[in-house]
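for the writeup, i need someone to sanity check this before i put it in the appendix. the sequnce is what the collaborator sent (i think, or maybe the updated version? ugh). structure was predicted straight from it, no edits. if anything looks off just tell me and ill rerun, i have time this weekend
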Amino acid sequence: MSLSPKLFMSCFHRTLSLTFAIIFLGGTSIGFSQTDTIWSGGAGLWTDTINWSGEFVPHNGNGGTNWNVFIDNGNVGNSAIDLNTNATINPLNISSGDLLNILNTRTVTIIQNGEAGAGVINKDRVVSLSGSGAITQLVFSGGAISINGTGTIVRSGGTNTRITG
C-alpha cells in the first residue's frame, strides 16, 4: 500500500509539528548540563576566559551549561576576581584567602539548584560589593542557600549595594 503524496505530506507535517511542540514548547525535559568550572588562580577579571577551566565565562546558558563555580579550588596562592559583567551561576565556592569583588553596576545571581549544601562562602573567604552611584547586587535565588564558615561579605557604597534573596 502506498500513500498519495498529499496524504504523506499531511502526515509528515503533523509529525513535524508534534515534534516541534514537544521539543520547544515542553521545555522541561530539555535543559542545560551541570558543569564545574574552576578559576585557575591569581588576579583577573571574571570575563578572562583563559583563567576558567573549559575557557568559558561562567554564566548559566553560556556554552549550553549551568555553571558550578569554584574560585581557585584550593590552590596555594590567593585569587582575586573582579566581576566585570552580570552573571547567573549555580553554587559559588570560594577557597580560603580568595576574593570575589562585585564591581559597580554588576550583579551576581546564585541559584540554589536543589543540591544539599549549595553555598557561597565556606571559610576565610571574602565577597565584596562596591557600588558607587549605581546598583551593585548579590542575589540569592531558588531556595535556601547556605553561607558557611567564617567568610565575610563586605558592602561599600551605602544603599547602592544590595544583598537580596
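Residues 59 and 87 are 5 Å apart (CA to CA). The chain has one helix and twelve strands.
thx in advance!!
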